[in-house]
Amino acid sequence: MRITVRLHTILRRETPEGIIDRISLDLPAMTTVSEAIRRIELPIRPRTMLLVVNGKLVQEDHVLGEGDELRLVPGVSGGRADRVAEAGGPALGPDRGREGNAG
Amino acid sequence: MGTSFTRRILHVDLTTGSLTHETPPESFYRTYLGGSAMGLHYILKDLKAGVDPLGPENVLTLMVSVLTGAPISGQSRMTANALSPLVDGVGDSQCGGFFPAEMRFAGFDGVVVTGLAAEPVYLWLHDGQAELRPAKHLWGKTTSQVDDLLKGELGDDKIEIAQCGPAGEKRVRLAAIMNMANRANGRTGLGAVMGSKNLKAVVVRGTSKKLPWADARKINELARWGSGEIENNGDVLGLQKYGTASVIVYQNTIGSLPTRNYNAGQFDGFEAISGERMADTILKDNDTCYACSVRCKRVVETEYAGRPVEKRHGGPEYETLATFGSYCGVQDMDAIALANKICNEYGLDTIGTGATVAWAMECFDRGLVSESEVGFRAPFGDAEAMVRLTEAIARRDGVGDILAEGSRRAAERLGRGRELLITVKGAEAPAHMPHAKRSLGLIYAVNPFGADHQSSEHDPMIEDGASELYMGRLALLGFDNTLPALSLGPDKVRFALKSQQFYSFLDSADLCQFVFGPAWTLYGPQETVDFVRAATGWDDFSLDELVAVGERRLNMLRLVNARLGMSRKDDRLPDKFFAPLQGEGPTSGVAISKEEIEAAKDAYYDLAGWDRASGNPSSDTLERLGLGWAA
Fold this sequence. Notes:
The complex is a heterodimer.
Chain A (H helix, E strand, L loop, with lengths): L1 E6 L5 E3 L2 E3 L1 E5 L6 H6 L5 E3 L2 E5 L2 E3 L10 E6 L6 E3 L20
Parallel strand pairs in A: 1-8
Antiparallel strand pairs in A: 1-4, 2-3, 5-9, 6-7, 6-8
Chain B lengths: L8 E5 L4 E5 L3 H7 L2 H12 L13 E4 L14 E6 L6 E6 L3 H7 L4 E5 L6 E6 L2 E6 L8 H11 L6 E4 L1 H5 L7 E3 L3 E3 L4 H7 L2 E7 L10 H14 L4 H9 L5 H6 L21 H6 L2 E5 L9 E4 L1 E3 L2 E3 L8 H7 L8 H14 L3 H16 L5 H4 L8 H13 L4 H4 L3 H8 L8 E2 L2 E2 L9 H9 L21 H9 L13 H20 L15 H12 L6 H21 L30 H15 L10 H6 L7
Parallel strand pairs in B: 1-6, 7-12
Antiparallel strand pairs in B: 1-2, 3-4, 3-6, 4-5, 7-8, 9-10, 9-12, 10-11, 13-14, 15-16, 17-18
Helix pairs in contact in B: 2-20, 2-22, 7-21, 11-13, 12-15, 13-15, 18-20, 20-22, 20-23
């Protein structure tokens, strides 16, 4: 089946050819939202984002169907965003490790 | 080790033309820090009951803080206070830009203005000197015209100018105090107070940017860390890339994007007014405030109906896109950008103005006002009508003369449309809906200057699913667990009050709420304390003291209102909020519960140390906060 993924704000990918904010995915039937997200290259992976299928808020175990439109919406808040490309842990505050485990 | 305050407050009596310098002691700065709390000190001291907000007796204060001008993001803010001509009681509003930092470099922590000048004047503050100069030649000129004229006249393009705009001159109750022709002390109508005093502008310039910070090395360290941290903080990165407009899609998704005058929480045209669409079409650049790395300000260039929108007018913020967009059912980004320009040129609050236009459009759609009264058709969704109504308000033309009073007074004058109002104490509700963010219902009701979205932290920061960053920071303020979505029980009330006290500190320290805050911002509570210590040398300044500064300012606001006879009865949401929302999305069919709000108010007053019956501070609370003198 084929679905469209819409990427919002910080999830849009900036490439030399322009912004990528819409991706078509060919997926096996019965694919869930979380499985679909794993197939996408995102510039950043927020810990929290809203998942919207055909205009309705869904959970990540929602099963996608043919022709669905999946929007990934970071909040006022994407939460703390872990940069995908960087293997190191999150940055620490200037003189403390208090935020070292901040998600 | 130095201290970071200039110790110069200027008192201006426009009636006599007298200028008096005051040198407050360090204890004064430690009690209030600056901004709103410092301004309210003078208002409580000098203001008499029964004063006309647009009369000479009103006291207008413009205050920066002991932190303003430091080389770090998020510190260039200035607070204006006075009795409000728009809302019942006290007015309060903050601006960003370069004016606030420049005011400190000019050698002033604050200005207290009373009286009425016989002819228009402007106040010129430079390198510790103050003078009043004639401004008759500036009267009637728009903000960008005044900027150009004053820069030419003073031969210095580095001056910064805070001015009232033609709308303030005409006492439009929605008038803002503008700087850079794109930054505003927007809310509560304080531009009209300036105009009513014949004070066209305050101009500031300091040739030295050196202030005696107690620990400049530490400030630099915090600044460097913050700059590097932006790309690790998804919220702040979103602000940098898409401005405040980055939240349009999020707000719409959770059913919190006010649509057609707060009749629904989702707007079918949301993508057309989104930050992403702006970035892909009319956005030309990012702009910033003094020393800020976040650079959230938008700079757009476009035209609508053959009328240009130039870069100098900045670009619409989230609130502006919502009020002129979804509130009005308008999905034309160019028309919104033009309405934003009109507001910036004439000096109008985009929230109050857009919401008043939306109210007028609903009146039109419901047949409460006719085409002949308006002068043209003005249904929801009509972009051209939205622009025309905005311009009519700015100029007090035709129906705009009534709408310039704000929606509540317009409804009273017309005797129609009261049931369609979305005002609290006369302030039009901003673009975050209590139907989706329940604690905002409480804060909109109890906030001393009416419905305001920048007076407390919003619910998603503590509700189930909140990130570890938020919860790690909120733990410092005593919140160890997330709370259920859409709750407004005792724990949520405690969150609302505590975060309101934190935000109240930010408005006293004149810190930007997108950079410093209790949860999602670049700097959290601990870094905020570190910054205050580094700037001032108060090494024992604690988070408890920080919160107490905010609590003090909140009580001072409330005290001004109490003197005017205001009480719990004024802490009232509009009737419209208690009817089920229409439209689609998670808030469709949702209504605010009167019982829930009243119970939350009881809990809030108890926690605040305010009397349940009157909603006003008890004498014990005032004594505890060192405010016994003001009771």
